[in-house]
Specification:
The protein has about 150 residues and is of the alpha+beta class. The chain has helices at about 1-25, 140, and strands at about 35, 40-45, 55, 60-65, 70-75, 100, 105-110, 115-120, 125-130, 135. Keywords: Signal.
């Protein structure tokens, strides 16, 4: 009797653990569907034939998943990368700023404390610098520190 209880608890642990991996998915990590979700709505392709700095966006109301269908309606399936897993190395929308850098070369508009979905990319050889008032500048203008040290938006 006790052995069946242990086996049941072990099975329950395995089920809960596998669900946690799906819910807490890794951001910017290549998945079996050959994309890496950068945040809940943006992704990049994991293919040597596609430029690595190209970010794609799910249609409005959809989230990036680990399924073969990359984007699916929000609420139907959990996003592979949750906004709550952000690494915090970049400014976030706090209600006082209109734009924030979301990677070294991208920025997004804030709607209060939320990011809007449109990602704007700086020209080649420019980095995001909202603090400069110019949005994107030459690296030499920002000195030793960039405002957001990520490859792509989360």
């Amino acid at each position: 009797m006790q052995q069946s209880q242990i086996l049941r608890n072990l099975c329950l642990f395995v089920v809960v653990s596998s669900m946690a991996v799906v819910v807490l998915g890794l951001c910017d990590s290549c998945q079996t569907n050959n994309v890496a979700c950068l945040n809940e709505t943006h992704y990049r392709f994991c293919s040597s034939n596609v430029a690595p700095n190209q970010v794609a966006q799910c249609p409005d109301g959809q989230v990036c998943t680990s399924l073969d269908i990359i984007c699916i309606d929000k609420g139907v399936y959990d996003p592979a990368c949750s906004n709550s897993t952000a690494d915090g190395s970049c400014s976030s929308c706090d209600g006082t700023n209109l734009f924030v850098c979301t990677s070294r070369t991208t920025f997004q508009m804030c709607d209060g404390t939320n990011l809007t979905s449109q990602v704007t990319k700086c020209k080649d050889n420019k980095v995001c610098s909202i603090n400069s008032g110019k949005y994107c500048v030459d690296l030499c203008e920002v000195g030793d520190t960039v405002e957001c040290d990520r490859e792509a938006p989360l």
